[in-house]
Amino acid sequence: MSQNISNPRVFGRVAVLSGGWSPEREISLQSGEQVFLALQRQGVNVELFDIQREDLLGNRLEGFDRAVNMMHGRGGEDGLVQAVLELRGLPYPGADVAASALAMDKLRSKRLWRDAGLPTPGFAAPASPVEALEAAQAIGYPIFVKPVADGSSVGISKVHSAKDLEAAFAEAAIYGDVLLEAFASGRELTCSVLAGEALPLVCIEPDGDFYDYHAKYLSDATRYLCPAPVDAALTTRIQEMALAAFAAIGARHWGRVDFMLDGSGEPQLLEINTLPGMTTHSLVPMAAQAAGMNFEALCWRLLELTMEDAS
Length: 311
Fold this sequence. Notes:
Oligomer: single chain
Shape: globular
Radius of gyration: 19 Å
Order of helices and strands: EHEHEHHHEHEEHEEEEHEHEEHH
CATH superfamily of the largest domain: ATP-grasp fold, B domain
Number of domains: 3
Structural class: alpha+beta
CATH class of the largest domain: Alpha Beta
């Protein structure tokens, strides 16, 4: 069970990891700085790191008692840093190696949810533009084309017709394997999970055709409604689905599960984020605030989760 800690000295020396080498590096630096400052304000003995590959095998992290990983994307969110921290014996909040790797792979996580009976939009994993054209015709337009294993909407396109599919495939393929996903026409909702509980839903009204990188991190016109303006019954269903999706992946401590409503108003699972952003535009702090937990308290809670008895 997690402990309620009041003395910051109990945490010892804490390393906040940020930066990395993924396309989400800049967002990671922002998240890391915000978490570092929040913990520092509360008297935690904390140090902020901009991590590069060589740092994981060097001695920069020696002498620390625990870590808070804010390295979004490949390297930081896919199990690699989690493995390094476990080898070093440094407790950290968030999904472990296996769950991080599974959640980062949108294709495998969607297959897992489908097999578990959890609703997710139709999808395909084409290996070439020709296969993509065939798959898109079967799924139907509009369609999302995205990298299998990147976050923050990096490399994602919404494609309305076959003439634009090849370019969208090439854009996504820059980052690795490609996923095609059916378009769900309703509202976009997200449910944060913290210490086994589902937080209030956030409804996203993006600035643009969909919630892309610009709408997430650069625009001031994207609207966030929290608690989301949906009825109590649907809220409960989505929260229960989020917890089920979280458990199916084997995640722990905290994360965020993203949904779209389809044309019938039914929730569809999009993806799970086991290392959500902690910037001024981020959704987990917003949901926590709606539940009565400010940013400092949220960061403190993440540290408390590292004190869990792993036995």
